[in-house]
C-alpha cells in the first residue's frame, strides 16, 4: 500500500517535470534543464523509497538506519545529477532549479490530495 502510493506520487512528479520541460519557452537546453532538475528529485526519491520501504516488520533501529540511509542517498543522487548537469552538460542552473521547484510543488500537491482522499470517511 505504501509502495503503491509512493510510486503514484513519483510518477506524477516525473510527469510534471517532463511536461514543465516541454513547455519551457526559452529553448531546448532550458527545457532539458527543467526536465533533468525534476527527474533528479524523482530518481533520488525512488532510490530512497527502495531502501527505506522494505517489506515486513523490522526493529526500530533498523527502520531508523534505513530511513536515514534513504535520506542521504536521496540528496546524494540529487547533488550528483545537478552538478553533473550543470558542469558536464552546461545546462542553465536556473532551469535545473525550476525543474526542482516544479517537482517539489507537484510532490506536495500529490501528497495533499492523497491525505484529503484518505481523511474522508
Description:
This protein is mostly helical. Helix content is 83%, strand content 0%. The protein has four helices and no strands. The protein has helices spanning 2-22, 28-52, 60-87, 93-119. It is flat. The two termini are 18 Å apart. The model has no long low-confidence stretch (mean pLDDT 85).
Keywords:
121 residues; mainly alpha; 4 helices; 0% strand; flat
Concise structural overview:
Helix content is 83%, strand content 0%. The chain is built from four helices and no strands. Helix 2 (28-52) crosses helix 4.
The percentage helix is over 70%
Number of DSSP helical runs: 4
Largest sheet: none
Structural class: mainly alpha
Spatial extent as radius of gyration? 16 Å
Basic shape: flat
Overall residue-averaged pLDDT value: 85
The count of β-strands is 0
